[in-house]
Write a structure and sequence with these properties.
352 residues, Peroxidase, domain 2, two-stranded antiparallel ribbon, 2 strands, 2% strand, globular, binds 2-acetamido-2-deoxy-beta-D-glucopyranose, Peroxidases_AS, iron
Length: 352
């Protein structure tokens, strides 16, 4: 028999080592918790449904693609830091509506209202950066690199600028779709007003699970939101002139100052004081009931997503899981080679 004090010391040592490992994050965080979710992850392979996505798809056909995309994205983000949130949002939108087919980049035509002009006003932007990259790539290797791949790489590079190293891998080989319908947006894009069950159902329909839902919501660590999207929570939650009880009441007062009733076109940071920094701070404020939207607060209403939200406060865990969820998101609904529905657009705004 081990003396009690020795057993206690050993136990203490194990607990401490574990705590240090978890707190220090990095690649060595405890994977055990996520195993159940990852194993249950029937939905989506990071290679796309038919394995259409590859590492280095353009290695032969356009070897400079990664440098060109990074170059142009970084110089734009250096000048306009909010672009990181914009490009991440564009990629997210593209993935959720008709899959990663660059349908979000298509302009409306006289006979068709495209996704980017959908109501509710999505205030999407960053299209000019994609155009700039596309033009440079057409000069280097015309007709080769799809707009869908450009968007996926540019979103990664924009977020990664702060770190000066890629924060996730982007496999390539996507083809561009030929259809973009404003009417596809509403049913597919997760809404800031949605509750937990609606959000989870939407993610599941794309092959994403509850971990992806929480982790990708962490994208709100950068960027700003329209004040008009908070009015209901702040001023008239149940129609009685009340405030959402799931919102920290002190923070609600702060928000009312930033988003007065008469200024629907104002903006507010989604991650207060940290909206230009890609970090796990969103999960810190979320757990203080300071998430901006109902869809943020919704993550605390389910015990599983609430627990995942707590774990994501650790930077190493969040970065690690974000990389994985982004790869899954980038594989949604990919049009690959040999699938007759796709093409490589010459101009990202119009079908060939
Ligand atoms: C990247 O940008 C630098 C500086 O503007 C330029 O010298 C270089 O040629 C660019 N590289 C590519 C591959 O576009
Ligand atoms: C959408 O936003 C743009 C830019 O903020 C604005 O000019 C336009 O009027 C808005 N459209 C709608 C339908 O709200
Ligand atoms: C690339 O440009 C050349 C010269 O203009 C043209 O002959 C060729 O067909 C183009 N390739 C593609 C794939 O568009
Ligand atoms: C969530 O929202 C949907 C759609 O508005 C609604 O049908 C459903 O009852 C809500 N679920 C809960 C648990 O409130
Ligand atoms: C609050 O909501 C109720 C019910 O939707 C509505 O009748 C009322 O006009 C709203 N009040 C304000 C100040 O917007």
């Amino acid at each position: 028999m081990m003396p009690k004090s020795l057993a206690f010391l050993l136990l203490l040592l194990i607990v401490l080592t574990r705590a240090v490992r978890i707190l220090c994050g990095g690649d060595e965080y405890d994977q055990q918790f996520f195993n159940a979710y990852d194993q249950d992850d029937h939905g989506l392979s990071i290679y796309g449904d038919g394995g259409q996505l590859k590492m280095g798809y353009y290695e032969q056909s356009c070897p400079s693609v990664e440098t060109v995309v990074r170059n142009i994205t970084w110089s734009n983000v250096a000048a306009k830091p909010f672009l990181a949130a914009k490009l991440l949002r564009l990629h997210f939108h593209d993935a959720f509506v008709r899959g990663n087919d660059a349908s979000v980049l298509l302009d409306s035509t006289p006979t068709n209202k495209a996704e980017k002009d959908a109501v509710p006003n999505l205030s999407l932007s960053g299209f000019d950066v994609i155009d700039e990259i596309k033009a440079a790539l057409e000069e280097k290797c015309n007709g080769t690199v799809s707009c869908a791949d450009i968007l996926a790489m540019a979103a990664r590079d924009a977020v990664s600028f702060q770190f000066q190293r890629p924060m996730w891998k982007v496999l390539t080989g996507r083809k561009d779709g030929k259809i973009s319908l404003a009417t596809d947006v509403g049913p597919n894009m997760p809404s800031p007003f949605s509750n937990f069950s609606t959000l989870l159902a939407q993610y599941s329909s794309k092959g994403l699970n509850i971990v992806d839902l929480v982790v990708l919501s962490g994208g709100h660590t950068i960027g700003i939101g329209h004040c008009s999207l908070t009015f209901k929570r702040l001023y008239n939650f149940t129609g009685k002139g009340d405030t959402d009880p799931c919102l920290n009441q002190d923070y609600a007062k702060t928000l009312m100052g930033l988003c007065p009733k008469n200024s629907p076109s104002s903006f507010v940071e989604m991650d207060p004081y940290s909206s230009l920094s890609f970090d796990s701070h969103y999960f810190t404020i979320l757990n203080q009931k300071k998430g901006l939207f109902q869809s943020d607060a919704a993550l605390l209403t389910d015990p599983r997503s609430a627990l995942i939200s707590q774990l994501m406060r650790i930077p190493g865990v969040f970065f690690n899981r974000f990389a994985r969820s982004m790869m899954k998101m980038g594989a949604i609904g990919v049009l690959g080679d040999g699938n007759g529905d796709g093409e490589v657009r010459r101009n990202c705004r119009v079908v060939n």
